[in-house]
Please model this.
Amino acid sequence: MNLYPINAGNFKLDGGAMFGVVPKSLWTRTNPADTHNMISMSMRCLLIEDGDKLILIDNGMGNKQSEKFFGYYYMYGDDSIDSSLKAHGFGRDDITDVFLSHLHFDHCGGSIEWNEDKNGYRPSFKNAIYWSNKLHWNWASVPNVREKASFLKENISPIEESGQLNFVATPDENNIYADNVLDCMNVLFVNGHTEAQMLPHLTYKDKTVVFVADLLPTHGHIPIPYVMGYDTRPLLTIGEKEKFLQKAADEEQVLFFEHDPDVECCTVQHTDRGVRIKDKFKLADL
Model:
């Protein structure tokens, strides 16, 4: 198995929204804000090369939204799905599976693109199976008021209409993991940020690499109370983070960050202040 970081682009979000009730004087130590209170964010996806499978985890915002839409998010830099795939010798048509941690637009918007006439939509990865789960799909398809601006119909409905949508089997009420998904990963289900978000766990170079998605958007979110204002159930997120980070520290897991602009991966350790970062590094340095 080979793993490759794929940067689908960079953007900015309001720092206060990203850290909820945590004071700015604290969160700016790890995530400095600009004069508009915006902090930098990446859309770092993960590409898994496993035998004849080429699996892409998440795919950023895509490029089909309006200029006004993108104007809210201060897109910057030259990174894209295509340039990042090309740097590793791949193209979109090589992707066999697209695994979606959840369906917020900054994670799944690249799933769908305009057709040639720009009067309809088509899958961006024409040869791929798209993976979600029924609990989250149903949650996103009829969005609540809080998340309606994040679950965009044009990112979701065309996947189902394409016939390329498959569902990961959800674990029963006594378990939080789905095992042996796509023959290469175990998946942790968490519900604080949104219903049934999926965090892939991969065995790589004798380590467990975890795609932490929006449970831990950046390394600045590792302290337990540092929870996004976007989370639908912040108290549940706190409990999920605590259990996850205890296990990550005990087992020396590698955390792969989707949104951290500077820290690609880290390990964590137990300290007298709780679980904190141990080492920061790039995936290629494992």
